[in-house]
Amino acid sequence: MANHAVLGLTVAVAAGMVAACTSTVVQRTPTLTQSPVVTESAAPSISTEPTLTPTTSTPSPMTFLAPVGPRCSASQLEVRTGMSGAGLGNGVSYIIFTDRGTAPCVLRGTPGVQLLDERRRVLIDPHTQDSPMNYVPTMANGGVGLIPLTNEGAAPGPNPEGGIRGQASLPVQYYDDGCDNNLVAALRITLPGGTLTIPFSLPGGGPGCNTSVISINPFQPAEFAP
């Protein structure tokens, strides 16, 4: 009987100890620590401005009208004096030719030129020669093409008394030597089919002499005036 009592007490004590142990167990929820997310920063984009390569334009050479058509006749041409200039003992005057016909024509080579006095008599001195004096450059060509200009060309061109595209010019060069050239009053130009005569004068200095020679150069495009 006593043994049963001791056994029951032992079981009761053991049960109490188990209950006590059970009541002291703490249920811990694990704490989740979030690791910082490391994001790789994108490499900075470097924008470069486009490199502008300077372009240099090469001016194209001046083109003139092609010499197309028959030779110009005196009857279809109008002629006038153009620009002139002098320096370093030399001078030049340009004679401008305009096609007043109905079709293109061509002026080639060097025409016959005579200097006249006020009574339209041919002057022996100064005389004309078919050779350049190199005061102003002239352009070698196989002829100058003219086109009909009904209204254009009567007034001066882009330069003072200059010519325009479609006209021809005749450079007349001389020595500006200070002589009194008042004997020269007109210029006679011989072309196929006739002659053209226009008033013409040379600059003069002092009395007592005349310019000795006048140089007649080949026809040039009127817009070519150095």
Describe the structure.
- It contains one helix and eleven strands.
- The longest helix is centred in the first third of the chain and has 22 residues, at 2-23.
- By secondary structure, the protein is mainly beta.
- It starts with a helix and ends in a 5-residue tail after the last strand.
- Strands 1, 2, 5, 7, 10 and 11 form a six-stranded mixed sheet that branches. Strands 4-8-9 form a three-stranded antiparallel sheet, with no helix packed on it. Strands 3-6 form a two-stranded antiparallel ribbon.
- It has one helix at residues 2-23; strands at 77-87, 90-99, 105-107, 112-116, 127-129, 144-146, 168-175, 186-191, 194-199, 213-216, 220-221.
- It is globular and about 45 Å long.
- Which quaternary structure do these chains form? single chain
Tell me the series of helices and strands, N- to C-terminal.
HEEEEEEEEEEE
Q: Helicity, in percent?
A: under 10%
Distance between the termini: 153 Å
Number of helices: 1
**Secondary-structure-derived class:** mainly beta
Integer average pLDDT: 73
Largest sheet: 6 strands, mixed
What does the radius of gyration come to? 53 Å
- Tally of DSSP β-strands: 11
